[in-house]
Design goal:
This protein is α+β, with helices and mostly antiparallel strands. It has one domain. The protein contains 2 helices and 4 strands, in the order ββαβαβ. The chain has a 4-stranded antiparallel beta sheet with strand order 3-1-2-4, with helices on both faces. About 9% of the residues have low confidence.
Length: 76
């Protein structure tokens, strides 16, 4: 944000990618850190930032229900 990205730029964090305990956290760059802190990741985290993620973040938020910032997906 200090170098020009708007605070509402979409961001997605994938915790423990490709593992059964994978979690996807959808947020903006302004609040991704706080949302990740709520999840307290116990494994590696991949963070992606950019407008191309906007639809994915919206779709992920619709799938979750109670906590629109976090999804858990089964990986086969």
């Amino acid at each position: 944000m200090a170098h020009g990205l708007p605070a509402d730029t979409p961001a997605i964090a994938v915790v423990c990618a490709t593992r059964p305990e994978q979690q996807v956290v959808c947020a903006t760059i302004a609040d991704i850190a706080a949302r990740l802190a709520c999840v307290a990741p116990a494994g590696p985290v991949l963070i992606m930032i950019g407008q191309a993620l906007a639809q994915c973040a919206e779709r992920g938020a619709q799938q979750v229900g109670e906590n629109p910032a976090v999804t858990q997906r089964q990986v086969s």
